[in-house]
Amino acid sequence: MKRITDLLGIQYPIFQGAMAHIARYPLVSAVSEAGGLGIIAAGGLSGEELREQIRETQKRTEKPFAVNLMLQMETISEQVEVLITEGVKIVTTGAGTPRPYMESLKQAGIKVFPVVPSVKLAKKMEELGADGVIAEGMEAGGHIGETTTMALIPQVTQAVTIPVIAAGGIGDGRGMAAAFALGARGVQLGTVFLTATECPIHDNYQQAILQADDTATTVIRKAKGGALRGLKNQLTEEHTNDAFSLAALERAADAGEIQQGMIMTGQIAGLLTQVKPAKTLIEEIFTEAELISKSIKID
Ligand SMILES: Cc1cc2nc3c(=O)[nH]c(=O)nc-3n(C[C@H](O)[C@H](O)[C@H](O)COP(=O)(O)O)c2cc1C
Hints:
Keywords: Flavoprotein, FMN, Monooxygenase, Oxidoreductase. Pfam families: NMO. GO terms for molecular function: monooxygenase activity. InterPro entries: Aldolase_TIM (IPR013785), NMO (IPR004136). The protein is globular. The chain has helices at residues 4-8, 25-33, 47-60, 76-85, 99-107, 119-128, 149-159, 173-181, 191-194, 203-211, 234-238, 246-253, 278-295, and strands spanning 14-16, 38-41, 65-70, 90-94, 111-116, 133-136, 142-144, 164-167, 186-189, 217-221, 227-231. The strands form two sheets. It has an eight-stranded parallel sheet. Helix content is 40%, strand content 16%. The two termini are 30 Å apart. By secondary structure, the chain is an alpha/beta fold. The relative contact order is 0.14. It has two domains: 4-199 and 273-292, TIM Barrel (Alpha-Beta Barrel), CATH 3.20.20; 203-268, no CATH class. Helix 4 links the parallel strand 3 and strand 4. The structure holds flavin mononucleotide (FMN). Flavin mononucleotide (FMN) binds at residues 17-20, 22, 41, 43, 68, 70, 94, 115, 136, 139-142, 167-170, 188-192, 264-266, 268.
């Protein structure tokens, strides 16, 4: 199997997870420029807004970056057209099946990596012609499935022949080495990149993550299905439908509303104590993972 770095033309097998409203060009270009894979979150953007994000990213880096499509968005067809015409080469997908867009994406030479929470969906995506899958465990921040990363990754890597990227709960080189030990060929990190210097979120949001401990997050569930992980606060306590809205995330990310905003973050927040440039985060994690992979002893 080709290495993920060779397949995508990146230096490190580290993806910056798409984060709605947050993963915009300042963070995306910093991650890609540092040798990881920056991913623009298209969720909530019109076609023209996505075009602007792509162009601003291209101005800042010539290295590969991706766009994450949330497939249930109304603007999805427009977004697909825009990313093809703007020359985007890698797409990740969430919230639904990429089936209706697969042919046009593949015809445009785009590599497609759907995010999946289960073996069943991973297999479906392989059948559809996906180039790899991002298997995300329920430790992750944001919308989550039911299975933990530790249990999900070995089951997905056993079930498919395409490369598997592990996501959910990876916070340092130890987590990255563990993911590779379970058969993953790359990792996707969201929560870690919320602590990047270049991450365009309110200081209150970033500080809340740095101060979080191992039990600081909770999962809120919709009656009709769908679960969301974020920091425990008044909003998650009240558990209204509003907590699931993009507006609730915006209140946290833009206005720094710590109690009434949705502070989406994963369980690994408890490990993170410092804001660092994306380049430092990536290099430290990769170097530590390499070191561990050479020195691990089972005795
Ligand atoms: C604030 C936030 C917003 C997110 N938004 C999206 C999104 O729009 N699309 C998506 O596919 N995943 C989204 N995710 C999931 C991340 O891309 C990533 O897979 C996840 O954060 C990995 O787990 P970790 O947080 O433990 O590192 C989001 C995560 C966070 C923390």
